[in-house]
Design goal:
12 helices, ATP hydrolysis activity, membrane, ATP binding, nucleotide-binding, 317 residues, Rossmann fold
């Protein structure tokens, strides 16, 4: 039996893309645990495997990609555990999972919304699929959520199409669509990319309130360490398809151990220090081949790191 605190577990996840040039190992042996009511931030540079890991949870990896190995298990509040990786693509359980038990805020609103349907139709469709309400009630729920994410004149905007919204407004619609069914697990893939700082702050407050009200567990994908410090309880740092360091937000930000984590934090410009050349990440960790055997270490403070044995420092031995 799993620990009752665990909401989602990812074990030895491998995701590959079969290209003409060969196989791309996008995710290579990822192990993650999301605990109930907590926010897990997954951080790393572009191409590190953050979004591919998130897409795997909802089984959204499409050809030429595939989940080559591993197991993803969801532990819902009021039903038996769900082995997501074993579900048939047309199963009723997967249908209930997407948008119901687990929802996702996509990074790019232009591709997340249908251009030929009003936003009202798109949000209400999700509500009608996962909640026992009628059409009128679904519209009332949709309007309330649009107001929550900061869209003015929500009643009128409900009848409009995505092209009638600015980029930031479209992103708010995507956020509203993901939150409207009050999912148990919310995956936010860099959700504030198109938002100004004021709306970003409002969204982060909305996430905080949602977590407090419904005990929603959140996976927050970002490269913004400021957002990590503000929202996360736990942090997983990814590099080249691997999780290289895991720990609490305080452990990772205050006392990073892995060379890549230290390099990631060192690459952030400081307003309080004199301008100097920022280090590059390759200069910190080097060019590591995907087949290089890395060693998994559990440190006395509970955090985990994965590292090339040749790079072990006296601090880690």
């Amino acid at each position: 039996m799993p620990n009752d605190d665990i909401h989602l577990r990812i074990e030895n996840l491998h995701v590959q893309f079969h290209m003409e040039e060969g196989i791309v190992h996008a995710v290579n042996g990822v192990n993650l645990v999301l605990n109930r009511g907590r926010t897990l931030a997954i951080v790393g540079e572009s191409g590190s495997g953050k979004s591919v890991t998130a897409f795997s949870i909802l089984r959204l990896i499409q050809k030429p990609g595939e989940i080559a190995d591993g197991k993803i298990t969801l532990y819902p509040r009021k039903r038996k555990p769900i082995d997501i990786t074993s579900l048939n693509e047309k199963s009723e359980t997967l249908y209930e999972l997407r948008g119901g038990l687990v929802s996702m805020i996509f990074q790019e609103p232009m591709t997340a919304l249908s251009p030929v349907h009003t936003i009202g139709n798109q949000i209400c469709e999700a509500i009608l699929l996962h909640q026992d309400v009628n059409k009128k009630e679904s519209e009332e729920i949709a309007i309330a959520m649009l107001k929550k994410v900061g869209i003015p004149n929500a009643e009128q905007r409900l009848r409009q199409y995505p092209h009638e919204f600015s980029g930031g407004m479209r992103q708010r619609v995507v956020i509203a669509m993901a939150l409207v069914c009050r999912p148990e697990v919310l995956i936010a893939d860099e959700p504030t990319t198109a938002l100004d700082v004021t709306i970003q702050a409002q969204f982060l407050d909305l996430l905080k309130n949602l977590k407090e009200e419904t005990k929603t567990s959140i996976i927050y994908i970002t490269h913004d360490m400021g957002v990590v410090a503000q929202t996360a309880d736990d942090v997983a740092v990814m590099y080249k398809g691997r999780v290289v360091e895991k720990g609490t937000v305080r452990q990772i930000l205050k006392d990073p151990i892995h060379p890549y984590t230290r390099g990631l934090l060192a690459a952030i410009p400081s307003m309080s220090e004199r301008q100097k050349r920022l280090p590059t990440l390759d200069s910190v960790i080097g060019d590591t081949d995907i087949d290089t055997p890395w060693e998994l270490l559990t440190l006395p403070d509970g955090r985990e790191i994965s590292i090339n044995p040749d790079e072990l420092t006296p601090q880690l031995k």
